[in-house]
Amino acid sequence: MGSACSRKRGQLLVDEEDLYSARFSKSSSFKWLLHTLPRSGSDVHRKVQGPVPARCPSLMELCVAKVREVFNELVEWNILTEELLGAFRDCALQDICLADYPGVRDAWMEVAASQGQSLLSVDISCSDVTDGGLNQLKDCINLQSLSCNYCDQISEHGLKTLSGLSNVTSLSFKKCSAVTAEGAKAFANMVNLGSLDLERCPKIHGGLVHLKGLRKLEKLNLRYCNGITDSDMKHLSGLSKLAHLNLEGCAVTAACLEVISGLVMLKVLNLGFNYITDACLVHLKELINLECLNLDSCKIGDEGLAHLKGLLKLRSLELSDTEVGSNGLRHLSGLRNLQSINLSFTLVTDIGLKKISGLNSLRSLNLDNRQITDNGLAALTCLTGLTHLDLFGARITDAGTNCLKYFKNLQSLEVCGGLITDAGVKNIKDLKALTLLNLSQNGNLTDKSLELISGLTALVSLNVSNSRVSNSGLHHLKPLQNLRSLSLESCKVTAIEIKKLQLAALPNLVSVRPE
Amino acid sequence: MLRKGEAPGHQTPPHLHKDDGDDDDDAPSGFVKLISAEGFEFVVDKKAAMVSNTLRNMLTSPGGFSETREGEVRFPEISTPILEKICQYFYWSLHYSSGKETSEFQIEPEITLELMMAANYLDT
Known about the structure:
The complex is a heterodimer. Chain A is an alpha/beta fold. Among the domains of chain A are: 59-178, Leucine-rich repeat, LRR (right-handed beta-alpha superhelix), CATH 3.80.10.10; 396-514, Ribonuclease Inhibitor (Leucine-rich repeat, LRR (right-handed beta-alpha superhelix), Alpha-Beta Horseshoe). Chain A contains 16 helices and 18 strands. In chain A, helix 15 (447-453) links the parallel strand 15 and strand 16 (461-463). Chain B is an alpha+beta fold. Chain B has one domain (31-122): Potassium Channel Kv1.1, Chain A (2-Layer Sandwich). Chain B is globular, with a radius of gyration of 14 Å. Classes of the chains: A alpha/beta, B alpha+beta. The A-B interface holds A 32, 41-42, 45, 49, 53, 56-60, 62-64, 66-67, 69-70, 73, 87-88, 91 and B 86, 89, 93, 96-99, 102, 104-105, 107, 109, 112-113, 115-116, 119-120, 122, 124.
């Protein structure tokens, strides 16, 4: 957002990670009967307090809760060493999150495994743990969540030793060469899996057959698994609960869509960067529960969109970098639940925007596209619920900015077509809800614009790069107390003057250009 | 007795505490002396000591342990600060169970692991 160049990426797509960050609870009993313990010390107290004095927590329970708290703090402050870790052997830890933590290797896994049946979640992403280390977890049978993303020392043999962990509900092995036709056998026994993340696993071909019996699987991420072929996909046909499927960049084609067309519970489907054509989209017709659909950079145009007409639950539609033009948008005019649509780098022109002007559920609209002008924007003024509007490359002039006044709820706005002057910024100055404003590339903007912006005190991110803004205008930014990111690249502004402003008035500013 | 609103860590030393009624009948009256590895003595109500299942067994088993007949129990494995913390917990626990205590029992991070081992031994 801060930079002028890198564009696009939908904002409202459902977060793939939310299951992984979930906390887990256990149900059967373990050593010291700690199963009733919540996860932090203060929770112990909160739970037992109330109008009637409840059971008093034992000192053991209080200590275990404290140990967990201390462990997490040591990790958070980056001061846990291998030596310190030894002290936590057999301490009934439940969560061991060491993702990206420096120095994690097999010796650490021995301490992790010593938590035995207490252990519920482990994250050793980006570590040097090998098969030998991973193997130690095989007796931690209550493990519910395991993440080994980017662990390049783990092979298919290591993965297979985990096959007994049948209570695992969430598993993540991003970019891991252990996921092979052989290694994937481990998944077959994990019948409670609800979420499986195999993004960028290069050797996955032939492995998906082992997912056949995972009837509880709701989320599957196969993003950029280059080895996947249409023949692999047929093994997914029985996954009737699948609600999230990410196939971005998998080189799958129409053949696999036949399988997908039967997965009627799908809510989130990402087919971006695949060889998907208009004719393929007929297979999506039956997926009436779809809420988010990503067709970024697919080979689709106006005709294909006709097949999306009936997907009335669609909330988010990503059509960036497709051949979709103004004619195609008429097929979308009935999708009354659409909240987000990305039409950047499409063939859509001003005329087409009339067809989406009635979609008053829209919150986020991306029109980063050179064909869009003031006339197109004028057709959209009834979309007063918009909170995000991206007109990055659109040719909006000062006259067009008059339309922006209708979008009182805007939280983010990008207008970087180069045609805006200080007079246009006047129409932006009353959009008080703005937290992100990008006016870069408008070479005529002066310090006067900074003065106008000074009333937008909710701003968190501001970009006025490539303009005539100068050091003497910087003082106008002082009221922007929430500002965290400021970009004034290629202006008459020096790093030292920004630094002075930062020290004197803007304590929350963390990202600054130039620096 | 704990004064209301005071953090347990700041309370008066355990040996000054007096039991405040609502006796349960099997509780032996009187005091017991708990002695740390360094020889430091903590005099606590027997009722408080019996928050620990290990001490309860010692104090109530028929015939008794020789240590308890003499009214003292030695803990060669438990250091003074840990034993002090444990005594504080005994009183906190009694007050908590009777609804008189609502503040949290504070445990300093640096003693947590040692305290946990002692708590495990004392079954409390």
